[in-house]
Design goal:
Endonuclease III, domain 1; mainly alpha; about 0% strand; single chain; binds iron/sulfur cluster; about 55% helix; 11 helices
Length: about 210
């Protein structure tokens, strides 16, 4: 079974009613800070990243100041979150690359972003859409799970999910759709025990294990 175009529009309208202000929940003031926050956010919560970056960005808010930190000093700032050694190494390397190859400015294209250490497809899409307002749908664990449960996508991997979402969601809503799906995934359609009984999308949702 598939959702019709009318039903897809209804799902998107309902999500927009529920989360009209959906936006990135990472705290940042500049594209550089967002880049660091997104690299730190792999396999941890935005809340934990915000706790760490609040302290880090207080004294080290930009590329040049973070370049002055040794890798060990950077590790000390971020060791509350998972994979911190690897993340510290990636951040130091990406800072050097942004400085040496992009003149100290975070690049705004997918091809340039994806070259940076620790930056994958999802991170590049988050950067493009949030920092530069370039339409993109970053598929993280929430977007993948929620869109496939509802039936906005029917895919086994994130890349296919991203392409299917780009087909069914109007381009002007790509950025908002990404945030709305994350918000729904964090608040209602959570990984274990989704709150189907209070979910407004329930009548349309195609998830076979949904609770009626
Ligand atoms: S009905 Fe359940 S599975 Fe479907 S979107 Fe709502 S919470 Fe998620």
């Amino acid at each position: 079974m598939e959702l019709s175009k009318v039903e897809i529009k209804k799902v998107l309208d309902l999500l927009q009613d529920m989360y009209p202000d959906a936006e990135c929940e990472l705290d940042y003031k500049t594209p550089f800070q967002l880049l660091i926050a997104v690299v730190l956010s792999a396999q941890t919560t935005d809340k934990k990243v915000n706790e760490v970056t609040k302290l880090l960005f207080k004294d080290y808010p930009d590329l040049d100041s973070i370049l002055k930190l040794s890798e060990e000093e950077l590790q000390n700032f971020i060791k509350k979150i998972g994979l911190y050694r690897n993340k510290a190494k990636n951040i130091k390397n990406l800072c050097r690359m942004v400085k040496d190859e992009y003149g100290g400015k975070v690049p705004g294209t997918y091809e340039e972003l994806i070259r940076l250490p620790g930056v994958g497809r999802k991170t590049a899409n988050v950067l493009m859409s949030n920092a530069f307002s370039i339409p993109a749908i970053a598929v993280d664990t929430h977007v993948f799970r929620v869109s496939n449960r509802i039936g906005l996508a029917k895919a086994q991997d994130v890349l296919k999910t991203e392409k299917q979402l780009m087909d069914v969601v109007p381009k002007e809503k790509w950025i908002l759709a990404h945030h709305m799906l994350i918000w729904h995934g964090r608040r209602v359609c959570i990984a274990r025990n989704p709150k189907c009984s209070i979910c407004q999308i329930n009548p349309l949702c195609l998830y076979e294990n949904k609770i009626l």
